[in-house]
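Q: My labmate handed me this sequence with no annotations at all. I'd like to see what the chain might look like in three dimensions before we decide whether it's worth expressing. Could you predict it?
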Amino acid sequence: MVDTPSQQKVTPPMQIPPLESGDRLTRHEFERRYEAMPHLKKAELIEGVVYVPAALRFRSHGQPHGNLMTWLGVYQAFTPKVLIGDNPTVRLDRDNEPQPDAVLLIEESAGGQARLSPDDYIEGAPELVVEVAASSASIDLGDKKRAYRRNGVQEYLVWQVFDRKIDWFQLEDDDYLSLAIDEQGIIQSSVFPGLWLATSALLNGEMQQVLAVLQQGINSEEHQQFVQQLAQAR
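A: Here is what I predict for the chain of 234 residues:
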């Protein structure tokens, strides 16, 4: 006796497991599960471990993040061949696929070290990565920092909101060293000439002052030379 179609057993399709914090996955499997969860807005693979953050609060993350994006966006607007990204997925290596709060990178055609993949992801290390962290105990200053350093992210800025502290690191001899703060409390990027940050003003939410100092950097001779250098790059 042959089973009719209604009597035949149908094997249900294999379900893709959801991403959960603490999962240990390859980057390929991480991407497969992430793509199967369109409702999920942020997840990261750091040193082979999955991190899915909780809902983000306004004063401790959303507002600082917005202020940083304003600062970076103004710089990018005056610096052709420099790209800005808000929470982009970055394929660093086989064990690391972070989704940093912000990145600033030089176009590959102008000598940048990262590239955009055919499926529109960043591959390689952006020149500058920016993260908003709750405190110094955050993963941003632990495994993630080591992964960025190992993969050659040239500068790494971390805003520790609860500690009211901003650390801006520069890669030198395979190690991260803090960029100097001048007498006016300003930090100047080495990779992006003219990207100046008034740290106290940013911590206090004084964005007019932050942007005024940034404009000084954009008007500097160093920034003009950088713009010319990028324009001549092939």
